[in-house]
Design brief:
CATH topology of the largest domain: FAD/NAD(P)-binding domain
Low-confidence stretches: none
CATH class of the largest domain: Alpha Beta
Bound molecules: flavin-adenine dinucleotide
Strand content: 25-35%
CATH architecture of the largest domain: 3-Layer(bba) Sandwich
Helix content: 25-40%
Order of helices and strands: EHEEHEHEHHEEHEEEEHEHEEEHEEEHEE
Mean pLDDT: 96
């Protein structure tokens, strides 16, 4: 049981990391270990799988822009990722609208495409209620009129399971990659770099490395080169017992499926004029609630990232909360989308965001110990997945920078701790 690289976690980050390691270290032997019975069984399967390249943080933009371009190529090569460029429509009240218009100068510098919509057009095409001030519920919630909307065309929806399958199938074709499912990592073996052969090693003064992982039941796997932890929301709990931090922590997130089962709801879902599919873009209302179109099932997926008051907590089997929908999400949605007043979800699910402190992924080598942490996807690990995997693999083989598909250079250190390109991300949804 000895490999060059051990990757803990077969979610999108573990899979893309393995995929890029194959390219960057040809011939290396890799094992991907997951406690689940198959790939992408963690938060990757819980994702809304919406994608966009619009981020305020430049590194997030680079990661997203690269990954979306890669996915587009995969889709165009005939492997269906369910990608549809329906766009994202961010709707703003007066105050934010002024601010965002100024922020667009940054987007112009990056050559990022966008379209601006006035409130009247949004109302006409989608049936969205843009004038809410004066309504009792708007007063209660402190909600304001929609002043305008920003549409990002390089954005849309895809299928997370198809994306994960793409990487998994590619990896399965290589003799150098093994998968160990139903294999829970319970700990790590820490050994001295220069063993003395004395009982009780490693002593505190010895230079140590993480040599491998221990599985439930006691079996050990050794890594000749690196152990890479890409265990999503579970990462901090796996690492804290050995004194390593992922600088990320989990927060529960929920999705509720609302069927477009009335003419008004269908009109909103199959809104004309925003994209070539005549499907509503991903809608983000001024209060932060979102509706992600799911045209195949004639529905929207609705969600909201509640922050203050929602604990950092990992639930092994998170369930959606009825009261969160009834008293939280439903009033927020139906205020701006009156067609969905009284709508009850036909299904729902819950997972976790693995949140870093600044909304950027955290990819670094802990204590030069041959242990690489790849965490903190902060709710956008699908849409940045390829680039995060590339950066993680690059760090594992000792590269300082990588070329992205659009010609940009990504410094791996920008995702780390010491050269971190720290910039607040304002567009976590
Ligand atoms: C409700 C919701 C909506 C989202 N919407 C979007 C979106 O629209 N767009 C987007 O880009 N992202 C979205 N995300 C975020 C996205 O799903 C995550 O960023 C991404 O899936 C993280 O991938 P990962 O590989 O880091 O984690 P995971 O997919 O969770 O993979 C981690 C793996 O590690 C395994 N593991 C954990 N502990 C152990 C252990 N001890 N031993 C062995 N294996 C272990 C788990 O079984 C799991 O398979 C959403 C997330 C949620 C919850």
């Amino acid at each position: 049981m000895e490999y060059d690289y051990i990757i803990v976690g077969a979610g999108i980050i573990g899979l893309t990391t393995a995929y890029h390691l194959l390219e960057l270290d040809p011939g290396a032997r890799i094992i991907v270990v997951d406690k689940a019975p198959g790939p992408a069984s963690g938060d990757t399967s819980k994702s809304a799988a919406a994608f966009r390249v619009f981020f305020t943080n430049r590194v997030n933009f680079l990661l997203a822009n690269h990954s979306v371009s890669v996915y587009r190529k995969i889709q165009e090569s005939g492997y269906d990722l369910g990608m549809r460029f329906v766009g994202y429509l961010f709707m703003y009240d007066k105050e934010k609208w002024e601010r965002i218009r100024m922020g667009l100068r940054e987007a112009d510098k990056r050559g990022l495409e966008y379209e601006l919509y006035d409130a009247a057009t949004i109302s006409e095409r989608l049936g969205v209620r843009v004038e809410v001030e004066g309504l009792e519920e708007a007063e209660l919630m402190g909600a304001h009129n929609i002043e305008g909307g920003l549409l990002i065309p390089k954005a849309g929806i895809m299928m997370a399971d198809r994306l994960a399958s793409y990487y998994y199938e590619k990896l399965r074709q290589s003799e150098n990659v093994s998968f160990a499912f139903n294999s829970k990592v319970t700990g790590f073996t820490i050994t001295p770099r220069e063993p003395l052969g004395i009982a009780g090693e490693p002593f505190p003064w010895q230079d140590k490395r993480v040599e491998g992982v221990v599985l439930e039941g006691g079996k050990e796997i050794k890594a000749r080169k690196k152990v890479i932890v890409a265990a999503g929301a579970w990462t901090p709990f796996l690492l804290w017992p050995i004194g390593v931090d992922s600088f990320s922590r989990p927060k529960k997130r929920q999705i509720f499926v609302l069927k477009a089962d009335t003419p008004e709801r269908r009109r909103m879902l199959f809104a004309e004029g925003f994209n070539r599919y005549n499907v509503s873009p991903m809608l983000i209302f001024p209060n932060g609630a979102y509706m992600r179109p799911s045209p195949e099932e004639s529905a929207f997926w609705a969600g909201y990232s509640d922050e203050l008051g929602r604990p950092f907590k990992l639930e092994e089997d998170p369930v959606p909360e009825e009261n969160f929908y009834i008293y939280g999400l439903h009033p927020m949605i139906s205020l701006y989308a009156p067609a969905f007043e009284g709508a009850r979800p036909t299904s729902s699910w819950a997972g976790h965001y693995d949140l870093s402190f600044d909304g950027m992924p955290v990819v670094y080598e802990a204590f030069e110990s041959d242990l690489i942490v790849s965490a903190g996807t902060s709710g956008s690990g699908i849409l940045k997945g390829d680039a995060i995997g590339l950066a993680t693999a690059a760090l594992a083989v000792g590269l300082e920078e990588v070329q992205l598909v659009d010609g940009e250079t990504l410094k791996v250190g920008w995702l780390g701790l010491y050269e971190r390109a720290h910039e607040k991300e304002h567009m976590i949804i």
